[in-house]
Amino acid sequence: xxxxxxxxxxxxxxxxxxxxxxxxxxxxxxxxxxxxxxxxxxxxxxxxxxxxxxxxxxxxxxxxxxxxxxxxxxxxxxxxxxxxxxxxxxxxxxxxxxxxxxxxxxxxxxxxxxxxxxxxxxxxxxxxxxxxxxxxxxxxxxxxxxxxxxxxxxxxxxxxxxxxxxxxxxxxxxxxxxxxxxxxxxxxxxxxxxxxxxxxxxxxxxxxxxxxxxxxxxxxxxxxxxxxxxxxxxxxxxxxxxxxxxxxxxxxxxxxxxxxxxxxxxxxxxxxxxxxxxxxxxxxxxxxxxxxxxxxxxxxxxxxxxxxxxxxxxxxxxxxxxxxxxxxxxxxxxxxxxxxxxxxxxxxxxxxxxxxxxxxxxxxxxxxxxxxxxxxxxxxxxxxxxxxxxxxxxxxxxxxxxxxxxxxxxxxxxxxxxxxxxxxxxxxxxxxxxxxxxxxxxxxxxxxxxxxxxxxxxxxxxxxxxxxxxxxxxxxxxxxxxxxxxxxxxxxxxxxxxxxxxxxxxxxxxxxxxxxxxxxxxxxxxxxxxxxxxxxxxxxxxxxxxxxxxxxxxxxxxxxxxxxxxxxxxxxxxxxxxxxxxxxxxxxxxxxxxxxxxxxxxxxxxxxxxxxxxxxxxxxxxxxxxxxxxxxxxxxxxxxxxxxxxxxxxxxxxxxxxxxxxxxxxxxxxxxxxxxxxxxxx
Amino acid sequence: xxxxxxxxxxxxxxxxxxxxxxxxxxxxxxxxxxxxxxxxxxxxxxxxxxxxxxxxxxxxxxxxxxxxxxxxxxxxxxxxxxxxxxxxxxxxxxxxxxxxxxxxxxxxxxxxxxxxxxxxxxxxxxxxxxxxxxxxxxxxxxxxxxxxxxxxxxxxxxxxxxxxxxxxxxxxxxxxxxxxxxxxxxxxxxxxxxxxxxxxxxxxxxxxxxxxxxxxxxxxxxxxxxxxxxxxxxxxxxxxxxxxxxxxxxxxxxxxxxxxxxxxxxxxxxxxxxxxxxxxxxxxxxxxxxxxxxxxxxxxxxxxxxxxxxxxxx
Lengths: 682, 314
Prior knowledge:
heterodimer, A: 682 residues, mainly alpha, two-stranded antiparallel sheet, 27 helices, 6% strand, B: 314 residues, 11 helices
């Protein structure tokens, strides 16, 4: 695997001859690397889950021995990375050639190099066996993705997005560094086993402080509200297959870090996790889910809309993770329910990777054929790009958590775990959990509304611009990679029971209890069941397979019924009250989302500006200009305030800085004196 | 706890729901007509309308994509599949696992999503308007419905409708507690929203200011429209059956005896008739609410559902 990514990176040197060649070879190497990763992870998950695969690395630093260790959890995330990486590697060359045909060879080489570096770092991060490898890969992942974000720069916007991304994620990395170094200092070693042992002796306050530091770091990378502001800017800026990787996979690496840190490294031996951890994660997860989808609803840039949906889906994953933290090692049915919650979170991880990858690739196909991202200017693409439209619709149904696709499965498990947790608690805490479930239902409904809008306005109706009018279907290799992810969505939706086998090792390893198959697919591979009560007698069981078969049979019957009776359809223009229909009669995305914008006005603070140009008298209007926008509450309420505070502070400092060297020496001496007084005695 | 319902019975119940769906609509229309001192069309009128639609030819918008003609078929299939999850004549889970209350809501949401997508396809403003309004009301209704389901599921420990009905007991004496009353009150508030009736939606009008669901049907014609109309009839009876299974599982047969099943069918008819009468009465005595007053109306349901849940869990 390493060899493949390394070869991919080296292949960028080919750019001296031809950028095209560098792209092809680079992506081929990435594909080979992804396939290797897939085989390694399947080997660990299916073969012998009990024994982690340990591979020592060459001695890079004199002070630390580095090693890779692939246990169930690592292998599972490696699998998620590989699934999307395969699609991205197939999609990439055709996309980059179609999207930016005039790119310089050096730029293409940089993209191939950064892609391989990005994938390699993510893969090795999940396999890291020590803190040093983990942090080096973490930083490598950030830097490589930064290069990819700014690689496609046209108007300077992407550079600004990249800068924000760098600042935010490095803030997060700083928190992680503190958390990890505090542990490594106590352990006097870097490998995870030593850290685990060192964490065993921590007192409660230190343990919680370290956890919240790490949570801050991981949450920044995962794009949790209110640390999400970089995400909707940075993800759309990258080329689309990189957006798919960043949204579908990179955010999950942060989830991996969170799980590894909380359940494996920092967890107290044989005791439940401190309750504040789980509640905090549940709370931020719920907030992210609801706010993410609400802001997505008002976005009209297709890729930005998808990026906000990543915030939402990370929230849904965190609801599962938080619930697992709350329920873990509680008496009664807590153990089994924690397994259900963690299974739901991990399943949603792979589900989100599959459908978000698919949607970003679909958006990329639209983008490379029309060079338009604003859905108000698209329309009518379903007739021109039928494959892309069909696959995008598949992804839209999946992400809206509608049966019979995979999004529904993981949300169903999350609902079952939430309900079970609520029954278990029988206190105001239980009510809080149920409230979280109601918010999850709201999220699902809003996501469906959002994707009805996104799909309908982009692909249906009439084209609104010449670019959309003259769009053609995407190249076959791009369609093929979308079909691959679509097939993953369908397979995980229709027969999720078989995926539980892969989830067995990570859940059993993390929770040191029953694995996913023992709890969720106890009644056979085609049946999902979850017991809500401690006695476990009245398990609720559903079968996605039978429902899917029923749906197909009914569709076939209804088809025969309506087709058998139908004569050939007559085509006629749509009735538009007597006027000749043009694309201006199509409902726009702004109009579609308006009712919800008004209902949730408290969160959006919508601004609306209508200017009328009149011809002499106010009754004859020549032109109406409309401008409207909604604000991101976190951005205005937190970030702008911080920004203003920093500006004010630096103004104040500038007033004090006179330019005299004596003054500065005085400051330094004073600071030294205070430091000696404070810390010198100890 | 009763034995499982065999496959044949589940399919029979599903077919029964599809066949009786238009009759419920016809009954409500007749009731409304009588309350307005009109004679009204016969209760079988919806069947005649359906037969007429299925015989007609199709006129399709020239801008519509290839999806347009499969949308009615898929909407109908998803709605009927939801019908398979409702216990009609007998309590207890199906003999093979199928789906639960969440799956039922999910399938109805799938039908609604597809209908909204289809409405945007023809490229007229009315379809988009209908789709936008329908997809605005749905996310507000869904969480409350889910909370009502949770408030009953918290007592029974399952979300499977047949098991829920069996747990509540099929005795003729209702053993309701305060939480059930509140949950049922929330359900009564939500019923017009879920079945597309006044005060949330008006099924009798095609005025652009008032229509929600009808706006999405405007561009469909012939058998396609027939499928969409049959889907709304089915959706209505499925929702009524869902409420009946959650709150009044009275009369459902315990065993497989023919008399028990017939009794169950009779009880089901009575329950659906009672709920249909409620819908007809509400529709005759109230006006349609302004669209932006709907969140406040639905908030009543939310408060009731939250109180029901709080009573169950605390």
